[in-house]
Amino acid sequence: MTGQQKTSRIEGFYKLPLEEKIKIVKDWAGLTDEEVALLLNFGNLPRDIGERMIENVVGAMSYPFAVAVNFLINGRDYLVPMVIEEASVVAAASNAARMLRYEKGIVAEAGPQEMIGQIHIVNVTAPQAKAARILEHKQEILEHAAQQDPVLVKYGGGPRDLEVRVVDTRKGPAIIVHLIVDVRDAMGANAVNTMAEAIAPILEKLTGGQARLRIISNYATRRIVRAWARTPAENIGGLEIAKRIEEASILAEADPYRAVTHNKGIMNGIIAVALATAQDHRAIEAGAHAYAARTGVYKPLSTWEVDEEGFLNGYLELPLQIGIVGGATRVHPIAKIALKILGVNTAKELAEVMAAVGLAQNLAALRALVTEGIQKGHMRLHARNLAVMAGATGELIDKVAERMIKDGRIRFDYAKELVEKALRGEPI
Ligand code: MEV
Predict the structure, then answer these.
(1) Does the Cβ of 365 fall within 6 Å of ligand 1?
(2) Paired strand residues for 386
């Protein structure tokens, strides 16, 4: 191989057994036997399931699975499973959830679980007339769509409506048909995509045009969830802090640069629950951020206000495209356990919990930002991580971390020095 360039063009890689795939990767990257063994440790994801979930599998990767506590949502208590790589998120969510345990706690309400399937039709002459013709045949088109998913229909879901638009593209007019489908407890992509593909030939016939894209829209504007909460200012540390949280909200409303970070804090919580329950988190993110920009300017998904009685009020609204049946949710054994811990019975309820978590997460971030800043808490966790990396175990982890914080030297080399000292039996 010397002098020869490595190539990533590997014919039939996907067909190889896992052992051969991993051998190729091992040679490619010079992985050690220990590294290969670690990669091949599928942990709590059975290997056969993992191998079937995606293609070209050469191992699995574990993330910590935590539960956020203190959540009272619509008068019911929840333990909320969260999977995330970022320190502080779970602690922050739990903390804010405690502050929002006032009366019924966080109130959340999801609307209908409707998704939009898009069919784009090009090369149409007299597009307005053809759009009208499509609407004339609405019933027959909806019936054909319904036939694609009798199970969904049996459970009370199915196609609900058809909307038709003529849009001007730089290559002339095109027709965009929206098929509205009540997807019930599914995320809905499979059901909607199947229906969109099935009705496309009918639309081609009616319009004389050609159907191009037939796919769900992740701009899930018909699947909105709202969460709000009201808590006495003393529950969050006093009126001054409440007012500063409102001020932070106002800044986010005025400045997209801040709004993006504000929303990132909300998504910290929502995506952590999405990961724990094996949702399509890219869809959630795409839809949420598009919704934040629906007015043409990127805005915060939540707002915070102090009312005349000195209560802090938070309100969050976003689309959530999530499911509890189908997809990885029912395949990944840990996602199934996550749903069991949550105890949710419908996708609507899961959406409500996720929105509530987003609101609490947002409060935690803003509260930290307007008081001590977020670095203090982060640095404590960072110090503990450094101590572990430096070889500390058990009680020594906190001891080393505390020393680093006290000395204002939260660095790996110092962690190592302290651990070595402690292991030699010297005081640190
Ligand atoms: C960090 O992951 C999230 C925050 O930046 C959110 C915010 O600024 O509101 C703290």
Answers:
(1) yes
(2) none
DSSP per-residue letters across 131-145: HHHHHHTHHHHHHHH
Q: Which of 283, 368, 365, 275 is nearest to 318 (CA)?
A: 283
| Fold (topology level) of 114-217 | Alpha-Beta Plaits (3.30.70)
Ligand 1 and 262: CB distance under 6 A: yes
Helix (H, G, I), strand (E, B) or coil at 220: coil
Q: How distant, in Å, are the alpha carbons of 69, 159, 248, 311 from that of 240? A: 26, 50, 12, 11
**Residue 60 three-state SS:** coil
The Cβ of residue 395 has, within 10 Å, a number of other Cβ atoms equal to 9
Taking the complete model, does pTM exceed 0.90, yes or no?
A: yes
Give me the residue spans of the domains in the chain: 13-53, 69-110+224-371, 114-217, 376-423
E strand residue ranges, 25-171: 65-73, 76-83, 107-110, 114-122, 158-169
222 neighbors 110 (Cβ within 8 angstroms): no
C-alpha closest to that of 386 among 415, 420, 418, 423: 415
378 is annotated as an active-site residue: yes
* Catalytic residue check, 86: yes
CA distance 53 to 59: 12
- Residues 419 and 428: their CA atoms lie apart, in Å, by 8
Q: Which of 264, 281, 289, 336 is catalytic?
A: 264
Q: Does 376-423 carry CATH code 3.40.50?
A: no
Q: Is the CB of 260 under 6 A from ligand 1?
A: no
* Ligand 1: residue whose CA is nearest its atom 9: 262
What are the CA-CA distances from residue 270 to residues 82, 99, 167, 208 (Å)?
Answer: 9, 18, 34, 44
Q: Which tens digits make up the pLDDT trace of 231-272?
A: 999 999 999 999 999 999 999 999 999 999 999 999 999 999
Q: Which residues contact residue 206 at a Cβ distance below 8 angstroms, ignoring those fewer than 6 apart?
A: 130, 133, 134, 137
- Of the listed 378, 399, 416, 421, which one is catalytic? 378
**263 Cβ below 6 A of ligand 1:** no
CA dihedral for 398, 400, 404, 410, sign (positive or negative) = negative
Q: What are phi and psi of 176, to 5 degrees?
A: -120, 120
| pLDDT digits 0-9 by tens, 285-315 | 999 999 999 999 999 999 999 999 999 999 9
Give the architecture (CATH level 2) of 69-110+224-371: Alpha-Beta Complex (3.90)
